[in-house]
Amino acid sequence: MGNKAQDIKEKAKRRKYGQHLTSFDIFYKYILPEIKTLLRNYLWVDLYAGEGNLILPILKEIQPDERETFFKDHIFLADVHEEMVNRCISNAESYGISDEIACTNIKLRDNLETFPQILKRKKFPIFHITNPPYLYLGYIRKHYETQKFLQYFKKENKGYQDLYQIAMINDLRSDVENLIYVIPTNFLYGASVSNKFRLDFLKYYNILKMIIFETKIFEHTGSNICIGFFKKKEVPQDEIQTFTGLKTKKQNDIVKMVYNLNPKFKYRAGSKFDEFLESYKAVNPLIVKYYLLKEEVSQNKGNFEIEVIDANQYKNNQYVKLNIEVNDNLKRIIESNILYIRTVDTGSYNGRAGLGQVNEDFDVRAIYVSHKTYRTHPIQIFLEPIISIEEQFLLRDYFNFILEQFRLKLDSEFLTTYKYSNAEYTRKYLGLTQTRKLIETFPYGKLTSEKKQELKSLITSKNFERILDFLKSI
After folding, report:
1. How many of the other CB atoms lie within 10 Å of CB of 215?
2. Is 363 left (phi over 0), alpha (psi -120 to 50) or beta?
C-alpha cells in the first residue's frame, strides 16, 4: 500500500508541475548525433534540466581529465525544484565534476519567470537543449494547485496556451540562436492551442528538422511528443517553412515526410485540408449550429415528449437516457436534424471522428446538454436551412469520405493528436471549426436529383479526384 500511495503522490506532482523527465536514450539516439561536432563551440544550457539528462551525457564525449574545465566553460543547468537541482549536481559529480564547480553551474531558478541574462555574457554562444514543463492553460485554470502558473500568461504572454510556449518565447526574446526542444506534437498539429504561438515564434525561427513520435516515449505521460531543431533567422519574416520530419509510428516504423508550413494557415501541419476547405466552400453554404442546450429546452417547454441522451451523464459505459418535454417548434427542429459530430476517435476504426446518425448510434432522437458543453462529447448538429433526411444521409457520407481521404493523404496531420493510447492508430481530435467548414463545402443548393445520384455513386466508388471535379463543375 505504501508503494501505491507513493506512486499516486509522484503522479500528482508530475501533473502539478508539467514535469516529465527525459531518458538518456533520447539524448544519445536523437540529439547527440546532431551536435557531436559542435561541443566546444557553445555554452550548452538546459533551463528546465530535471536530472540533467539532456546535457550531462555530453561529458562522456570529453576526456576525463578535461571534463571539469569543459563543464566550467561549456555547461549551465537550472531547475525550479531544489530536489532536481540536487539530483543534477549529484549526476554531474558522477562524471568527475567537483561539488564546487557543479554548484557554480547548476542553479535553483524559475526560468519561466525570467531568462537568466547572465548567460549572454558568457564566453560562448548559447545552445539551449531542453524538455520544458508542459501544462495546458485550460488545465492550469481548473485546478487550484496549478493556478500559480497563471502569472506566466499575463502581459506580453497573453494568448499563449502552454508552459512550453512560455519557455520558447523567453528564448526568442533573449535572442537565443540555437534550440532543441522536446515538446508536445500540438506545436505542429494544434489549432487554438498553438496558432498564435506558431505565428509569433516561426516568424523568427526556422525549423531545421522534426522527430515526431506516435509511440509512447515517456513512462509517465500520455502526450505525443516531438523533438524540434530550431535556428533563429537572420531577418524575421513570415514565409513557408519546408523541412524534413521523421515520424516514428507504432511497431517502430519510421516514415520520412516533407513538411510545408504556410503562414496563411498559421503554420499548421496538414494545411492541404485547410486549402480544400477554403477553395471548395459552397456559394450559399449550410449554416451549422451545435448543441441542444438545457436553456433552449427550458425556453421551449411543451407537451411533446422526446427521448434523449444526456451528454453530461455517462454511466456503465453509456450515456444516460431521459425524456424532455418540448413545444411543437423545437420538436420539429429536433426531428428534422438527425446528425451529430463525433470529434474524437475512439480507437477503433468504426469509431473514428466524423458525422453519425443520432438514432442509429444512441437509439434516441437527440443529444441533450444538461450542464456545460464539452468539445469531446457527441454533439448534435442543427442545420439552416433544414434539408431533407435523404440529403442529410448524403451529407454524412460525403463528409466522412472527404475526411477519411484527407486522413489517408496527410496521415491525419491536419487533426490534433488527442492522447497516446494502445489503439490501432493514433487517436485524433476534429475541431468544431473544421467540422463547420467541411460541411460548408457540401453543395446542397446545387444538387438536383441527378446530381445527388452522381455524388452518391462517386462516394460509393471512392473516387476522390472525380468528386473534386464534381464540386468544381457545380
Report:
1. 14
2. left
Residue 275 within any structural domain of the chain: no
Cell numbers found for residue 165: 510556449
Kindly state whether residues 55 and 97 are assigned to the same domain: yes
Domains of the chain: total: 2
Please indicate, yes or no, if residue 299 is contained in any of the structural domains.
Answer: yes
CATH of residue 153's domain is 3.40.50.150
Task: Say if residue 253 is in the same domain as residue 350.
Answer: no
Q: Which helix (H) or strand (E) holds 368?
A: strand 366-369
Indicate the pTM of the whole model: 0.77
Q: Return phi, psi of residue 136, to 5°.
A: -70, 140
Q: What is the CA radius of gyration of the chain?
A: 26
**pLDDT on residue 14:** 43
What range does the domain containing 181 cover? 2-267
Say what percent of the chain tops pLDDT 90. Answer: 80
* Domain final residue, candidates 203, 237, 267: 267
- Chosen domain end from 235, 267, 299: 267
Q: What is the mean pLDDT of the chain?
A: 91
Triad 13, 18, 20: Cα angle to 5°: 85
Give the mean pLDDT of 349-371. Answer: 95
CA-to-CA distance for 365 and 359, rounded, in angstroms? Answer: 6
Helix, strand, or coil (residue 166): helix
Task: Convert 327-354 to b/e letters by CB count within 10 Å (16 or more is b).
Answer: eeebbebbeebbbbbbbbbeeeeeebbb
Q: Exposed, middle or buried, 251 (CB in 10 Å: 0-12/13-18/19+)?
A: exposed
Handedness of CA 45, 179, 219, 211 (dihedral sign): negative
| Per-residue pLDDT tens digits for 148-166 | 999 999 999 999 999 999 9
Predicted pLDDT of residue 215: 76
Contact 240, 261 (CB under 8 A): yes
How far is residue 369's CA from residue 379's CA, in Å, rounded to a whole number?
9
Which residue pairs, CB below 8 angstroms and at least 24 apart, start in 147-156?
Answer: 149/112, 151/113, 152/112, 152/113
Position 281 in a domain: no
Give Cβ neighbours of residue 178 (< 8 Å, ≥ 6 apart): 42, 125, 126, 127, 128, 230, 231, 232
Is residue 263 within 8 A of residue 227, CB to CB? The reply is no
